[in-house]
Amino acid sequence: MSPSRSKVYFGSVKHGNTGRFASFAAKVDKVIEHLDFSTIEKKDKVAIKMHLGFNDGYQTVPVFFVRRVVKAVKKAGGYPFVTDNPTAVYNAAERGYTSETCGCPLIPSAGVKDGYTRQVEFNFGNIDTMEMGGVMADADVLIDFTHVKGHNSCGYGGAVKNIALGGYHGPSRWQKIHGVEASIPYWDSEKCTPEHAKKLVESCPDECISYNEEKHQLTVAFGMCDQCWKCMEADKAVGCLDLKQENYAMFQQLMARAANEVLKTFDENKRFFLNFALDITALCDCWGIAQPHVVNDIGVLGSRAIVAIEQASLDLVANEGLIESMIPPYFKNLNMDPDADLHPFARLHGPMKNPYLVVDYCEELGMGSRKYDLIEVLSVEETKNMEPPKGVSETQPSFF
Ligand code: SF4
Prior knowledge:
The protein has 14 helices and 16 strands. By secondary structure, it is an alpha/beta fold.
């Protein structure tokens, strides 16, 4: 095995035996075992960074699995805590996450008022600095504990996104990262009259274009744009609008940089990545809504290498493809053309939001190689011929 290839352990939701030893839960334990928490030292403070969801968005990683990781960290001698932004932490109980159910405290990543932060210089596009969550950065160990799903701004929400957006305080996330696409000029105010600007606003079926007549300022919300190009069509005769791949790519470039800065605050042997490709929705958990899953459940991936686990997760989603009947009608520019060379998340969110871009940028930053060896644990093949249990549940009296 070449040293530039990273190991990614994988447990599929498909199983080959009715025994508990072959169940998905056992596979999660096995992947955690392979991750090898022995580099966690006694009394290390271990940040389990996860998305706890918002409002009615319950399709985050089930607390059932959080408990298993927490147990393994405690066994290794660490002090685990679950962390996310304060809003998600404060109402996490609504979605089943409490210190009792998780087995460890839940602590807001940038303190109780989202103000305990570390300033990081970026000097990238229109971003000078951002504020990293101080609680998370104070920890000795990071477990990047991720729900794999789609994302409207970049196609894919995975391990990079979990610490890139989730690793910074609210204003950094909402006012800086979500806005970096505008770093590259895309509208020529001199060529555009107010009447034409209003025509452009009307041309967008997703209401991504807004216009402030007083300031003569037109703004495109790139996060919701699915690149239907109806605005470009409406602009043909004037040519004041120029939405480029570079605009859309800025978001993923910044995500790679933001995640890299978070990782720098942890020793290399104290970073662990777990991706749960379950209940894969089209939009991120921060929408706070219940959504249909648009890709079949796949399983759990674990690695010490962030780029490799992201590449592997994206590849597994690509192999699985979209469940067309589950795609909501608000994906108006859905591309299901089998000849189009698009990742399922780009079919939903548009070709400029190719989710593989983020792994390319991470690799360029030296965060690791995209090459990986996928090592499946307790596969159907491996377990199907094992001796199954003699009985099913409650074979022994539990309560008397
Ligand atoms: S490309 Fe389509 S979705 Fe995007 S801003 Fe233009 S009209 Fe709106």
